[in-house]
Design a protein that fits this description.
Blueprint lengths: L1 E7 L9 H12 L3 E4 L7 H11 L4 E8 L5 H15 L3 E6 L3 H4 L10 H16 L21 E7 L3 H10 L2 E5 L3 H18 L5 E10 L3 H12 L8 H6 L3 H8 L4 H7 L10 E3 L1 H14 L3 E6 L8 H6 L4
Parallel strand pairs: 1-2, 1-9, 2-3, 3-4, 4-5, 5-6, 6-7, 7-8, 7-9
Helix pairs in contact: 1-2, 2-3, 3-5, 5-6, 6-7, 7-12, 10-11
GO molecular function, one term: oxidoreductase activity, acting on paired donors, with incorporation or reduction of molecular oxygen
Keywords: Oxidoreductase
InterPro entries: F420-G6PD/mer, F420_Rv3093c, Luciferase-like_dom, Luciferase-like_sf
Length: 318
């Protein structure tokens, strides 16, 4: 099982410079790769560059970048710029994001997201493998001056059409806050889609919230990260089956985040994550591996554990 680290995943109340500290620690502890998510606070390519300059070895993946707010050339140029400035491979992850982010933050319509993801993935893959001297786009008088970024193309997927896009174009497919049972089902879908596309299946990774020997603040942070999934199809049934039906019903009725956090019992943090003592977490990692996951991207809780140090030290590569 490969284990990487997510320096920043989703918006919360952490200090704005916490992602750099997480990444520096991950690099020092020997993790191979750091993911740099995008949100209202940080542009992922800018932050990935800052992290690359503050670290020594770790590979960088920017995103998932919302495909409804960036064109494919801009995405590929961003990755190439990160690689050129940092002097190491840079990959990019694509996703559809949410209506709340695309329309509420960027003011752009989130139309036909599955189609936008497929079109973007196909175009970005081509741009990532361009070479200096070629036109930046077909027919353009401008020529490529930067080498290709050298990292992988990742597609975040959950539904059938997004999985088909990952199977057809990606080097890696990304899941987010999933249970081992969901991994098993989604891996089967990925294998079937790759066979249909005539490609070797991409590797399968998942962002998973993680907290080893969590303090109450750490557990609360993990619960906050999953509260937004309570109404998402495919997740709500899983949470209901796990005994969280009350929280699911409150979310469906429009309850605010604080109400949902009060309704979620502490053990809910472990339904789609790695939370507990070290033996519990290692057993959970084994369950994800058995279900078919190739890579866990740790999203370390930093509340009560600055930079996620307790968790990252406990799970660092051998």
């Amino acid at each position: 099982m490969d284990i990487s680290v997510v320096a920043v995943g989703r918006e919360d109340d952490s200090p704005v410079d916490e992602p750099v500290r997480v990444a520096v620690l991950a690099d020092r502890l020997g993790y191979r790769e750091v993911w740099v998510g995008e949100g209202p606070t940080w542009d992922s390519f800018v932050l990935a560059t800052a992290i690359g300059l503050a670290t020594e070895r770790v590979e960088l993946t920017a995103g998932p970048v919302p495909v409804s707010v960036r064109d494919p050339f801009t995405i590929a140029r961003g990755a190439a710029g990160v690689a050129a400035v940092t002097g190491r491979p840079a990959g990019v992850a694509l996703g559809t994001s949410s209506k709340r982010v695309v329309e509420g933050v960027h003011g752009r319509p989130r139309l036909r997201p599955a189609t936008a993801l497929e079109e973007s993935a196909a175009a970005v893959r081509g741009f990532l493998h361009g070479v200096p001297g070629e036109p930046v786009v077909p027919g353009s008088p401008f020529r490529r001056r930067l080498p290709p970024p050298g990292g992988r193309l990742t597609v975040a997927a959950f539904g059938d059409r997004a999985i088909a896009t990952a199977a057809a174009h990606a080097d890696r497919m990304l899941l987010d806050v999933v249970s081992p049972e969901q991994v098993r089902v989604l891996r089967a879908s990925l294998l079937a889609a790759a066979e249909k596309a005539g490609r070797t299946p991409p590797t399968l990774a998942a962002w998973l919230p993680a907290a080893v020997d969590p303090k109450p603040e750490s557990r609360a942070q993990v619960l906050g990260s999953i509260a937004g999934y309570l109404t998402v199809p495919g997740y709500r049934d899983m949470f209901t089956a796990s005994g969280l039906g009350e929280a699911v019903e409150l979310a469906a009725a429009g309850a605010d985040r604080d109400t949902l956090l009060r309704a979620l019992p502490p053990e809910a943090a472990g339904v789609v994550g790695l939370v507990g003592d070290l033996d519990t977490v290692r057993s959970r990692i084994d369950a994800y591996a058995e279900a078919g996951l190739d890579e866990i991207a740790l999203v370390p809780a930093t509340a009560g554990d600055p930079a996620g140090e307790r968790t990252l030290r406990a799970l660092r590569p051998a």
